[in-house]
Amino acid sequence: MEHESSRFYFYFLLLTVISVLGDVGAWLGPAQGTVRLVAAIVPQLLAYVGLLLLIGLRLMAGREAMSRVWLSWGNGRDWLFFAPAIVAFYVLQVVLNALFGLGPVHPSPIALPPRLSPTLFLTLAGVQSVLLAPILALVIAFGEEYGWRGYLQSELLKMGWVRGVLLVGVIWGVWHWPLILMGFSYPGYPLLGLGLAVLFLVGFAVVLGTAVLRSGCVLLAAYLHALNDQTTGFIVFLGYKPFNPAFSFGVGIYGIATLALITLLILRAPVWRSRGSSLSSPPAEEDQMK
Fold it and tell me: What string of DSSP letters covers 215-250?
């Protein structure tokens, strides 16, 4: 059964190869044309197929077999707790920016499709961005979260749980430095942005690390990672981008201070008094032979 349930890994590698080939083809091909259209659509369709594959493997192999290859869905209560909490955090950051004059109070005007009311349009856009897109991106973000929360966190927790998860956050933040230097997240603050990116991702690493420790589910981390990106993107789409990216709530200094308080509370949770790694290790070869 473990062999059957591990087929998702082969599918994910296939999806990765196809996505890379599509990006290369779009880069080498004309600005407009069939190649770019196919490169944009095919990976999305394959991600849907990946979700169906995960569901099918869960039904065929069972929960225990999926857990042994780190593909358990975990407890539904963890999904229902962490997902709304992440959305609520960013909504709070928008409200605080508005209250302290660090961001806009009202959304920016949006060009609407003809014959579509603003309320209906924003509702559909919100459902797509915050609900449907993260579910689809769960397959796409799986590889990154398997590396951070599945492998690296499990290894570093051996040096102490709090120390290990904080170190994961530091490495994760440094991994984002090239993007920060290119002007993402903190435009106009390339050097300060390097430190802020590390601090923010250390806090976010505690959140995702706690989710995985509670659920034993790296898929939950992939979903929350995608949800985080989609939620922040939707907020920017609405026009609630802070006036100053570094000195504001959200991913700025004041938002990091807010996240630090939440992190301190999270680290008092009972799960942090446990011992062991974040996920059960895959079975040894001799166990598979039995």
Answer: H--HHHHHHHHHHHHHHHHHHHHHT---SSSSSSSS
